[in-house]
Each structure stands twice: as structure tokens, then as C-alpha cells.
From TrEMBL, chain A:
Descriptive protein name: Uncharacterized protein
Protein origin, superkingdom: Bacteria
Record organism: Leptospira saintgironsiae
From TrEMBL, chain B:
Pfam family, one: DUF4178
Keyword Cytoplasm: no
InterPro entries: DUF4178
Keywords: Membrane, Transmembrane, Transmembrane helix
Domain DUF4178: 56-190, 310-423
The protein, known as: DUF4178 domain-containing protein
Residue stretches spanning the membrane: 461-480, 625-643
Superkingdom of this protein's organism: Bacteria
Protein source organism: Leptospira saintgironsiae
């Protein structure tokens, strides 16, 4: 019984990978990690420095700019 | 049918087959030669031994569509006991023979297709030397002959004629001795070279089961088909006087006392002692004599004999135990080796050789496993041959877990058997509770124990291959379906305005961020966007971009980073390079709308220096990355399983 259950580990793993791939495929097959930020200042177009889009570990602050 | 008179006593002697030449009178056992319409006495047939055969004169059958009737018999005695050659008259009047020994049946016919000069001559009875094609060679089981077929010699035996009955196509003399060579072909045929005549006669045909013969008119119908058990017989040991049970008196030929090791010939009325084992130990005899065995898919049987065997490999002695099982209509062996159990059945024929040290039997390929010598250390119980102390044999094993085939070769015989691995739990449930409680769980891997990792590996390979194929189909379909629509293209120039490598946001960093023109992303919300940046002239430098794709209407930004860095050089005479002048990022599920890209860059260019770069934004791209990523993860565990499987195989003993 235990052997039988152990034998199921890989099929479950493969199935989860399959679901992951399929899910990814429906999203356009993109694996890039990106961050979605809402309510960025409307003035970014006139003053790009007001929004620091620093990816990931950089501190984001909105008030800066030239 | 004609009826002649016995020339000795005048009793009627029926002649069923016109082709019969010899007849034995059932009243006075006179053997007569048929001459026209008379019989001429040529001798007297000896008394036939009661060998518990279920066949008798008049028994009818049908073998593979050929009806036959038993009309005569010659009974012979050989090392293993009695053996009958039943003379059959087939439906068309032709003659055939049904050999019967140890519950096995052989349907053969005289093979007249072989030129007599091709049939090898024989010299000597005990140690026969075959003379074929002018060469003299000592023969041993396992040798090959070509006589219309490729035959392998299975057994050399010397038979003594006990007597005969009924009608026969050949004459015989009670007490005559003849060397017989039993042959088997790789195609499952059976043959006998009978040296009672010169040149020898070749009889060839097939191994047969009792069921295949479709017999009627049997002597003991109830024994054959009605499951009536012949009762056990009580025997007093001639060596120590102990009371012993003979569980299968119809089958066994010798009985080894479990107390003193004396082996008695159970065919002789006076139970003559024929051998003696010096050491008798019932330690580690896990299945006592008489233990009933109920293994799934095998007939119910009983342990009637126990053999302890050993072999020496590299000065180390390995021992194992063989339990002889008897069931109605046959016998089998249960082998216990390191607490692993294997059920063996006798194998008709000789498995074929195949390239790569393999044998093929019933379309299954068996890999060579081991060669060894075996010595019989002691025996308990009864056996179908006259067991003796110190019997030696050469063993050869081929495995295809859970099955294995083994050959056991002595000077006189080559015996093939097929085994199947019995899992510990199955074995425990096959014996009575008190016996099961003494069985030990094996700590070593059995010779033909199925490798769970191999089974798993095979299945996982199948799962991985199937899933990879599915991934590939989706990938190819995705590539075909992708729009690859370029929604924005721009050419910019990066010029270093800060101290090189200044951190974004630090005091010596001068902000150089800018935004592109607005562009429109069409399509559905689950389509992706790919941002590509290429700096074609960058050389031993990098430009890092913090990128934000910003929706002008919703003020939502999608932040990512892109780096173009290309370095190269020569170290110790070897050129190297790393990085790439271009990079791209795909952002999944970007809703349609009006967007612009905000870029902020950082580099190791000196102040005032820089490079041109191109920016491209593409809607709905199918990237190959997920396919490769998932495939790698999918196949990685198989490497682990492969090594576990390999490790299991190396522990097989």
C-alpha cells in the first residue's frame, strides 16, 4: 500500500506541472515575474521621475522627480 | 478386431490393430509374435509393477484433434522409478506412443525421416560416448544434436524393461537394458533416442498435459479428476525406528528420515536404506513437512520434502532451502533464499538462447544472472527420485523479475524450471498462522524480486514523455496562434549623466527617466506583452533598465527590469564572452488599453559616454521558456528514480 502511494508521487507532481504549464499557456506563456502597481501618479507622463518604477528590491517613492 | 489364441494357454488374445506385430496374453503373460492368423510364443513378459498410473488398456483420448486408443504398454524402470510407454492406435490406424513419468506426459511417434547413418552411435552404458560424423565425444546433458531439429540433450538414462501388456509394434525382453537419451528442442518439442535397437530409434513429439490428452476410460477416474486424495502412509524408519508419514505414496520414490537422516527406497517393500545424511538439522526449516500451501493462482499443495543446499563463492558459503510441494497432478518447488520466496515449476523444453546472454521462454526475455554449483547438505521427507547425500549440480539462473528460469545440470540430467517471486505478505497468507508467525521479513533483495524503482521508472518515463508531447503540442499551437503584433518601436540614446554605477535614487544619481509615446494594446486581457531592448553597440558595458508599462487610463503600472550587458576578453589565451546585447521580458495578462513605457537606466559608462538602444513592444508573443522550464522540472525526478533503480539492481542476490 505504502509503495503504491509512493508510486503516485511523481504522477501527482507531473500533473501539477502540467496544470502549471497549461495555466501559464492560457496567460500567454510568460514566466516573467513583474509587479503590478495601482494608482500611479497621473503626472508621470509630464514628469517621468515622479514615479520610480524600481523593480523588485528598490524602494519605490512617488514624490521625487526633477 | 480379430481374436487369436494364446499359444501357451489358449486364452483369447484380442488384436485391435492389424499393424500390431506382438501381443502379450493377459492370462499367462506370454509374449507372442503374430504370424498371419496365429501367434507364436517368443517369451514371457514379467509382472507389471503397480505404478498408480491412471491409464489402462482401452483408455481413449484425443490429442490436438487426433483420436487415439491405448492398446499396449511397455513398462520400464529407471533411476527415478517406473515409467510407462503406452502404445496408442490413432484414428487412422497409425501407431504413436504416450510416455508417462512423474506425472508428465510425452506424445511421440517414431521419426523415420532421419537417415539412419545420421543417428549417432553410442559406446558404453554408464558413461556414454556418442559417435557422430566420425567423432567420438563424451556426452553430457546440455549437449546439442542436429537430427532434423536442433535438439538439446536433457537426460541420459539407463532403463530396464519390467514387462509389457497388450499389442505392440515392437518386441521386448523382460529385463533388457537400454540407454535412452531424452531430448528437447528450443521450440518445445520432445524427443527420445532409444538405443535398444541399432541404429537407435528416434521418437519425437510434444510434451503434453493431462488435460490436453482428453482421456476417458481411465483406471482411476476419481484419482484423476474427482480430487480424491490417496491417504498418507505410516512408515517406520529403518535407521532409527521413528514413525514417519509418507504424504504422497503414489508419487514419492524415497523418504529421508527427519530424525536420523536415513534415506529409504519406498519402492522396495523392505524400505532398504539407500543413503544417509550425516547432519540433519531442522533449524531454519520454516515450512515443516505436511504444511499446506495455498498460494494465489497456484494449485493447493503440501510440503512433502525439504532439501538444504549450499554453494561456495569466494570462500563464502551460501545456503538456501528447497521445499518440494506435491499437488494432485504434479509437483512444484518453493525456494527460500535469504527469507525471499520463489515458486518453481518444472519447465518443458529448453529456453532459446538470445543475443546478449539471454534466454527466451514464451516470448519473454530472461537476462543471465548467475552460475553456481550446488551441494545437497541434507534432506527431510519424501522425493520423487532416490535422493542421496552430497548430490551436486551446476545451476544457471536467468531473470526477468518477477520471473526467473533456472537450469540444474548433473552428469545425467538437465532440469529446467520456471520461478516466480512470492512477496512476503503473500507467502505469509499462504501458510497456516503458526507457520506464518515464524517467517521472517527479508532484509535483502531477492533474485527475481521486482524492482519497484524500475517499474516506477518505466511508468514515470511514460508519464513524462506523454506530458512533454502534450506540452509540445500546446507550444506549437501557441506559436502558430500568437499574433506577434509590434505595437511600439523606438530608438534612443543612453548617455551617462551620473557617476558610473551610482545607485538609482542615491544622491549622486541623476535621474534620466523618460516615457515613450502612447501606444494601444488590443486583444483580450489574457494576452501578454513582450518588451524587447537591444543595444547593438554595447561593448564590455551594461545598461540596466527599470521599466514600467503604465496604463494611461487606469494608472496601473507593470514593473519589471531589463538588462543588456555584454562582456568579452581573453584569459590565458582563451577567449570568453558573457551576457547579451539584447534582452526581453514578457508580461502576462496585460489588459487592452492605451499604454506608455517609462524607462529609467543605469550603466557603467563613463560620464558623457553611452550607447544607442532600440525598444520594441510586441503584443501576444508565445515564449519557448515555459516549455523548456516545465520540461526540465518534469524530467529531473526521473534521474533520481534511475539511480534508485540502479542501486536496487546492484543489491540483487
Amino acid at each position: 500500500m505504502w509503495n503504491f502511494l509512493k508510486g503516485l508521487v511523481y504522477p501527482f507532481f507531473a500533473a501539477s506541472l502540467g496544470l502549471g504549464f497549461f495555466s501559464d499557456y492560457t496567460k500567454g506563456g510568460a514566466t516573467t515575474d513583474f509587479e503590478e502597481v495601482n494608482q500611479v501618479p497621473k503626472t508621470v507622463r509630464q514628469n517621468p521621475g515622479i514615479y520610480r518604477s524600481h523593480y523588485a528590491w528598490f524602494t519605490r517613492n512617488f514624490p521625487g522627480g526633477k | 478386431m480379430s481374436e487369436l489364441s494364446c499359444p501357451n494357454c489358449g486364452a483369447p488374445v484380442p488384436i485391435i490393430n492389424k499393424a500390431s506385430v506382438y501381443a502379450v496374453c493377459s492370462s499367462c503373460k506370454t509374449l507372442s509374435l503374430k504370424k498371419d492368423v496365429n501367434l507364436e510364443k517368443i517369451g514371457t513378459a514379467g509382472e507389471l509393477a503397480d505404478d498408480h498410473s491412471i491409464i489402462q488398456l482401452g483408455t481413449q483420448g484425443n490429442y490436438r484433434g487426433t483420436p487415439f486408443r491405448v492398446i499396449g504398454r511397455i513398462q520400464l524402470k529407471f533411476e527415478l522409478g517406473f515409467w510407462n510407454e503406452w502404445h496408442l492406435m490413432e484414428g487412422d490406424g497409425s501407431s504413436a506412443w504416450l510416455g508417462e513419468a512423474q506425472g508428465s506426459y510425452y506424445y511421440t511417434k517414431l521419426n523415420v525421416g532421419i537417415p539412419t547413418d545420421k543417428i549417432p552411435n553410442l559406446e558404453g552404458d554408464e558413461d556414454p560416448i556418442v559417435i557422430a560424423s566420425g567423432r567420438r565425444e563424451r556426452i553430457t546433458p546440455g549437449d546439442s544434436f542436429y537430427l532434423g531439429e536442433n535438439w538439446t540433450l536433457k537426460e541420459i538414462m539407463k532403463a530396464t524393461c519390467i514387462g509389457g501388456e497388450g499389442e505392440l509394434p515392437i518386441g521386448f525382453q523382460t529385463g533388457y537394458e537400454a540407454v535412452l537419451l531424452d531430448l528437447a528442442s528450443e521450440d518445445g518439442l520432445f524427443g527420445t533416442l532409444d538405443y535398444s535397437e541399432s541404429p537407435a530409434l528416434l521418437f519425437s513429439g510434444n510434451f503434453s498435459t493431462l488435460e490436453e490428452l482428453n482421456l476417458t476410460g481411465l483406471r482411476q477416474e476419481e484419482v484423476a479428476y474427482n480430487q480424491t486424495q490417496i491417504p498418507a502412509k505410516s512408515i517406520e524408519c529403518k535407521g532409527c525406528g521413528a514413525s514417519l508419514n509418507q504424504f504422497s505414496p503414489d508419487f514419492s520414490k524415497s523418504l529421508a528420515c527427519e530424525y536420523c537422516g536415513s534415506v529409504m527406497d519406498t519402492e522396495s517393500d523392505d524400505l532398504k536404506i539407500i543413503a544417509k545424511f550425516d547432519q540433519v538439522s531442522r533449524d531454519n526449516v520454516l515450512l515443516p513437512l505436511g504444511t499446506p500451501i495455498k498460494l494465489p493462482n497456484f494449485p493447493e499443495s503440501k510440503v512433502i520434502g525439504v532439501l538444504r543446499k549450499s554453494t561456495e563463492v569466494d570462500d563464502e558459503t551460501y545456503t538456501w532451502t528447497d521445499y518440494l510441494l506435491r499437488y494432485r497432478g504434479g509437483y512444484a518447488w518453493l525456494n527460500e533464499n535469504g527469507d525471499n520466496w520463489t515458486y518453481f515449476e518444472p519447465l518443458a523444453g529448453v529456453p532459446k538462447w538470445a543475443p546478449g546472454l539471454k534466454r527466451i521462454f514464451q516470448k519473454r526475455s530472461y537476462k543471465w544472472f548467475a552460475n553456481s554449483d550446488s551441494n545437497t547438505d541434507f534432506a527431510l521427507g519424501e522425493f520423487y527420485w532416490k535422493v542421496s547425500a552430497g548430490e551436486k549440480a551446476q545451476l544457471e539462473d536467468f531473470i526477468s523479475p518477477p520471473y526467473m528460469i533456472s537450469s540444474e545440470r548433473t552428469d545425467k540430467e538437465l532440469f529446467w524450471s520456471k520461478g516466480v517471486f512470492i512477496p512476503f505478505d503473500t507467502m505469509k497468507s499462504a501458510v497456516p498462522l503458526d507457520t506464518a508467525s515464524k517467517l521472517r521479513k527479508p532484509e535483502i533483495v531477492g533474485v527475481c524480486e521486482p524492482n519497484p524503482f524500475k517499474i516506477r521508472l518505466k511508468r514515470n518515463l511514460w508519464v513524462a514523455a506523454t506530458l512533454t508531447a502534450v506540452f509540445l503540442v500546446f507550444q506549437v499551437y501557441g506559436c502558430i496562434k500568437a499574433k506577434n503584433q509590434i505595437v511600439y518601436e523606438g530608438k534612443f540614446k543612453y548617455v551617462q549623466t551620473s557617476t558610473p554605477n551610482a545607485e538609482i535614487g542615491s544622491s549622486n544619481f541623476r535621474d534620466n527617466s523618460f516615457v515613450t509615446d502612447v501606444f494601444e494594446l488590443k486583444g483580450s486581457a489574457n494576452e501578454n506583452v513582450e518588451i524587447q531592448i537591444e543595444a547593438p553597440n554595447i561593448d564590455n558595458k551594461y545598461i540596466f533598465f527599470s521599466a514600467a508599462l503604465i496604463n494611461e487610463d487606469t494608472d496601473t503600472a507593470y514593473d519589471t527590469s531589463i538588462e543588456t550587458s555584454y562582456y568579452h576578453g581573453v584569459d590565458d589565451g582563451e577567449s570568453w564572452s558573457e551576457g547579451s546585447r539584447s534582452d526581453s521580458k514578457s508580461l502576462a495578462e496585460i489588459p487592452p488599453g492605451r499604454y506608455y513605457l517609462r524607462l529609467e537606466s543605469q550603466s557603467d559608462f563613463p560620464e558623457g559616454w553611452g550607447s544607442v538602444y532600440n525598444v520594441k513592444i510586441i503584443r501576444d508573443v508565445m515564449s519557448p521558456a515555459p516549455f523548456f522550464l516545465f520540461s526540465i522540472f518534469l524530467w529531473l525526478p526521473l534521474i533520481y528514480t534511475f539511480f534508485r533503480s540502479y542501486s536496487f539492481e546492484s543489491k540483487r542476490v
